[in-house]
Every structure is written in C-alpha cells, then in structure tokens.
Structure to design on (574 residues):
C-alpha cells in the first residue's frame, strides 16, 4: 500500500512556502493562482469567512481590525489576537494558514494531503515547538517532524553537494527571526554542531526603524501623531517595506503617501527620501545583534571563524547589501548565495519529508543530525536555596539524546518530591523559562540524603522533551511529556507580572516580615558577596511572584529558603 505524500512547509513570519520531494528533487508547490510564496496573513472578510495569503493582505489597508500578520512572533507567548470582536490564539491563526497550504498543496498534487514536515526557527523553545505542532494538527495534518529552519536550508544545499567536506555556517535572517547554525558536512552527512539565534530579530524590525523615523519626521513637521490612525500606520508599514527592498538595489528611495492626514481642512502628505546611508545608520544596532549568536555557535562548535568554509545566506532579509558587508567584515569570509533565500527552507523540509517517506535512501543520500538549542534542567537544592538549576541536557547536544542525574532527598522523612523543569542558560531557575512540573510520591520516609531519585530527560528529533523520575530504592516512577498545548494554562512571563502589587494580595501579610528582613540584608551586603546578592534578589522576586499568583505551597518553601540564607549571611556578618 502506497503511503500518503508528506510535504514540507516553511511557516514564516512574513511568508509561507511549501514543497514536495519527487523525481529526485524538491519541487515548490504553487497556489491556485500559481504563486510559490504566500503572505503569512490571515483575516476575516465582511461575511466572517476566513481568508489567507494575498486576499488577507489586500484587505489589511481597508480592514486592519479584521486582519492579522506576523502571527509567528506571538507563538508560545500566551497572548491573543483580536479579529473583529473575537479573540484568537496564535495557534488558531497559524492553523488557518496551514489549512490553506494543505488545500492548495492538495490541488497541486491531485490528492488529499494529511502529512507534513513543518520548519521552525532553531531558537524556538519547547512551548513554541509544541504550539507549531498543535497548529499543524488543527489544520488536519499529521506533523511528522518539526525541523529547524537553518538545518532545512543546509539540506537544500547539501543535496547538490554531497561529496563536499566543509564547515558551513547557515545565516538565516527572515521576516521575524534570526538563526545561525554551524554544520559539518562530510561524505553525505550533515552534522549540526551548534545553533543560536534571536527570536525577536528579523526584517520586520528593520521596517520598524523606518516606520519610527517616518512617524517622528511627520510629527516634527506637522505636529500630528500618525500612530493614532490605524489606516495611516498600515500605509506607512507597506511603504517602509517597499523602501527597504528598493534600497537593496538603489542608492535612495522616495516615499510619497498623499492624504495621509488632515490638519484642519488642509490635507497632508508624507514625502520623504531615504538614502542607503541613512537606512544603514538607523539599523546598525540590529545588524550588530547578529554577532553574539554567531560567537555562541563558534564557541559551542569549537571552531574559529577562519575554519568556516562557506556561509550560506537564507531568508529574504539577507538580500539587504549591509548583511553581506557585515558578514564579510565580521567573519572575514564572503557569504554564498548558493540557495534561494526564500525557498531553501521549504525545499529542505521537503527533502526531510522525502527521507521520512523512504524516497531518499539513507544509504545513498543525505544523513542529518541536529542539536537541541537550549540548556534543559530541573530546579534543585544546594544546601540553602532551591533557586538553582541543575543541568540535565546542555545546549547544542546532538539529538535524539537521553541524560540522567541522581538527586537525594533534602528534608528529613520526605515522602514526595516536585520535579520542576526549566529551559535556559542561567544557573538560577527564576531567570530561566519554566516548562512544566510533576510530583513523585511514595518515597520511603528516611533521614535527608538517604533516598535517591533518578531523573531522566529524553529529547527527541522534534524537540519534544519527556521527563521521568524514579525512586531508586523502590523502582516507583512518575513522568511527564512537556506538552503545553493549552495556552490558557501557560505561566505568565515574569515581565508581565507587576511584583509591586504583592502587598495587596490577601494572605500576603504572613510574608512581610521575611521580605523586610531580606531587603535589609540586601542593603548590607556588597561586592564580596555578589553571588548571594543575586540569589537574594531572585528569591525575593520569586516569593513576591508566588504571592501574587497565590501559589502558597511554593511561597512557603521560598520563605523557608530565604530565612535559611539570610540567617547564614547574618552569621558571616557577625
């Protein structure tokens, strides 16, 4: 029985593309209008029907309140988007885009499409990967693989260069995200060595610099704030994008937007000429933000910039001449345009789909390995605070991978333990991203340190994490798959909680004494104990956060740890 076709989808911030592997190569799938690229825009028409792509983008100017773009940037952040009078999650809207792709792909191939490989930025975290997976599922797709975008682009390149032996740096600057991945290629094997990136850096941020400049100029000249008009801002956004693209081939570009506003009875126009020099100067800080992730992958990959054989440019934003100029200056190597920057990721996803279908023989074709982009670990106790993260799987370890650590009980007669899972690069859990938790009970009641708990992390090729805890003496176990598909249950980001409001929470008075004691200690200690200062500050914030969220068990544990630490420091002080 013939297995159904698996397609590859590049679900981008600005645009989306799809491809299939057949006749020995990836083939881009065209829409009913014979388009290879569709805008990642979704909306509701006047009748309340869903529209996607070109139709949705066309209505943006007339009905911005019923249209959404750049949805990918909100994936995994627990935020909603209002269209008309209804709120939708980023998963809901992403699924509409994927459903449209599924429809036109089926029309193009003449069959029902039910399986797909979907690419994501290499620096997407576990929640963002899960929500992308969920969007595909809601679109009626069985998502066979979540594939990192730079890895997909490397597959597109590697298919035609299987005999090459080289170190490749994939520089992927898309509409909304930036990724950089270091790979080693030899004998048809693509081995990912390290990935890093910035999920808040992309072409839209370069547009934003132009938009802010134009708004400021108009306010200075006419005393009118164009940001108060939704329609005016849609026009300016479109003009900024056109200007950015024009400056890739021209020295200057004139933006003229007639009837953009009125001052009394007088109609006003926006008329500004932007030069390449101006644009490069206003976006210099964005270009420089790409340097840190590059340095991370070189360090983690254990090679020097001089050992890179090829830099491959991916993503439409790499068409800006300043990108190539900056890479040449920073790394001392002229980047390559060996792949189509708009289509390479979809093509690579299709190659991966071909591998899954068995169309590409692993004995004769490409073999690929990948890595996890973030450090993964659990909250742990170090003797006087539980604000520590013990690393289970370091970042940039080849996946799939399974790692185990042994922990001991830290309270006398402790019969249960909470396993809290975090993702991030800080040694303090409160500075990292909380992923999920579970409890293991039935620990034999003994003195502290007498019982061992084995915690295992298994990280698969889709970036999905399974965590298991086993009581060593009894073999009893508990586990969790980190699957935060219910966005309503996601924890609030730390910056979204106003910690100053802790005093107003009923029950907070029980913690005022310890909070005042910690604050007094923080005023006393200086540079010799900066580490303790960090722990006190993080612990205090964590306690206030627990109070605001009314997580009283956690608040009590944090209080006890803070008291122990302050008592310890007071002993040193005396």
């Amino acid at each position: 029985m013939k297995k159904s076709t698996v397609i590859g989808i590049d679900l981008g911030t600005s645009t989306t593309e799809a491809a299939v592997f057949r006749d020995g190569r990836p083939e881009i799938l065209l829409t009913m209008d014979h388009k290879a690229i569709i805008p990642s825009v979704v909306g509701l028409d006047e009748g309340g029907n869903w529209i996607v792509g070109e139709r949705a983008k066309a209505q943006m100017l007339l009905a911005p309140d019923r249209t959404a773009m750049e949805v990918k940037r909100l994936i995994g952040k627990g935020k909603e988007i209002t269209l008309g009078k209804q709120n939708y999650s980023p998963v809901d809207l992403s699924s509409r885009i994927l459903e449209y792709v599924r429809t036109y792909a089926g029309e193009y191939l003449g069959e029902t499409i039910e399986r797909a490989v979907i690419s994501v930025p290499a620096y997407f975290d576990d929640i963002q990967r899960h929500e992308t997976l969920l969007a595909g599922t809601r679109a009626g797709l069985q998502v066979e693989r979540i594939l990192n975008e730079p890895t997909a682009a490397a597959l597109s390149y590697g298919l035609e260069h299987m005999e090459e032996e080289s170190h490749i740096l994939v520089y992927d600057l898309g509409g909304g995200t930036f990724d950089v991945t270091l790979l080693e290629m030899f004998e048809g094997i693509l081995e990912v060595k390290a990935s890093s990136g910035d999920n808040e850096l992309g072409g839209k941020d370069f547009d934003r610099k132009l938009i802010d400049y134009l708004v400021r100029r108009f306010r200075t000249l006419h005393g009118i704030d164009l940001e108060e008009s939704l329609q005016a801002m849609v026009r300016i956004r479109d003009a900024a994008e056109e200007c950015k693209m024009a400056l890739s081939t021209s020295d200057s570009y004139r933006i003229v937007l007639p009837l953009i506003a009125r001052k009394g009875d007088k109609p006003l126009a926006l008329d500004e000429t932007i030069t390449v020099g101006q644009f490069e100067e206003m976006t210099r800080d964005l270009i420089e933000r790409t340097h840190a992730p590059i340095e991370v992958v070189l360090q983690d990959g254990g090679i020097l910039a001089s050992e890179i054989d090829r830099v491959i440019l991916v993503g439409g934003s790499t068409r800006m001449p300043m990108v190539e100029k900056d890479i040449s200056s920073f790394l001392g190597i002229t980047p390559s345009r060996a792949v189509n920057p708009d289509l390479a990721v979809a093509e690579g996803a299709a190659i991966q789909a071909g591998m899954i279908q068995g169309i590409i023989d692993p004995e004769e074709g490409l073999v690929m390995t990948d890595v996890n982009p973030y450090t993964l670990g659990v909250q742990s106790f170090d003797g006087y605070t539980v604000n520590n993260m013990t690393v289970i799987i370091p970042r940039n370890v080849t996946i799939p991978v399974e790692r185990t650590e042994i922990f001991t009980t830290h309270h006398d007669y402790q019969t249960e333990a909470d396993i809290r899972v975090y993702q991030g690069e800080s040694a303090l859990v409160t500075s990292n991203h909380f992923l999920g938790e579970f409890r293991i009970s039935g620990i034999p009641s003994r003195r502290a340190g007498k019982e061992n708990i084995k915690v295992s992390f298994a990280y698969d090729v889709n970036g999905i994490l399974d965590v298991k805890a086993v009581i060593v003496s009894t073999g009893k176990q508990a586990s969790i798959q980190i699957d935060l598909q219910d966005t309503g249950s996601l924890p609030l980001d730390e910056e979204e909680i106003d910690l100053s409001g802790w005093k107003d929470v009923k029950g907070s008075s029980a913690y005022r004494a310890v909070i005042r004691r910690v604050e007094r200690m923080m005023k006393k200690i200086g540079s010799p104990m900066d580490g303790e200062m960090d722990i006190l500050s993080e612990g205090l914030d964590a306690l206030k956060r627990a109070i605001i969220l009314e997580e009283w068990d956690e608040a009590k544990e944090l209080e006890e740890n803070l008291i122990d630490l302050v008592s310890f420091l007071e002993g040193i002080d005396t």
